[in-house]
Amino acid sequence: MIGQRIGTYTIIEKLGEGGMGEVYRARDPKLGRDVAIKILPDLFAADADRVARFQREAQVLASLNHPHIAQIYGLEEIRPAGGSKEQDPPYAVIDRRRDVVPRHRDVVRADSLSDRSVCRRARPATH
After folding, report:
1. Which of 37, 56, 66, 124 sits a CA distance of 20 to 30 A from 108?
2. Is 124 within a domain?
3. What CATH number is given to the structural domain containing 31?
4. Would you say 6 and 39 are in contact if contact means Cβ atoms under 8 Å apart?
5. Cα 88 to chain centroid, rounded
């Protein structure tokens, strides 16, 4: 994936992977900033329940505003060249600031956040 384009973003490096996808650092050439791109793997993209969970996770992230939680910029689908009509895996475009780590444990651990209400609100979408 390194060097490939997803939408308008250029993949720079792989940051990690987890239960809901792979995360890459990418460059947004329009705004001149780095972002994190979280891609739902093809195996999960074929599962309607996993896609719905991925979308709920993005919606919850979009509803939160806290300095310890990354902001989400968008939820997109990869469109392959040639106009294929196949179902493309969704991907989320997330803030890539160094002081924000968009990981599951940062959202659900109340002791890592100063605002426990943010944590309680995020918990149902992450389980």
Report:
1. 37
2. no
3. 3.30.200.20
4. yes
5. 16
CA distance 87 to 7: 15
Look at strands 21-28 and 33-39 and give their pairing: antiparallel
46-60 confidence digits (pLDDT tens): 888 988 898 998 899
Contacts of 24 (CB under 8 A, 6+ apart): 1, 11, 12, 13, 14, 15, 36, 37, 39
How far lies 90's CA from each of 51, 106, 108, 119, in Å?
Answer: 8, 23, 24, 25
Residue 107 has pLDDT above 50, yes or no: no
On whether the CB atoms of residues 11 and 24 are closer than 8 A, the answer is yes
Domain that holds residue 45: 5-102
pTM of the model: 0.68
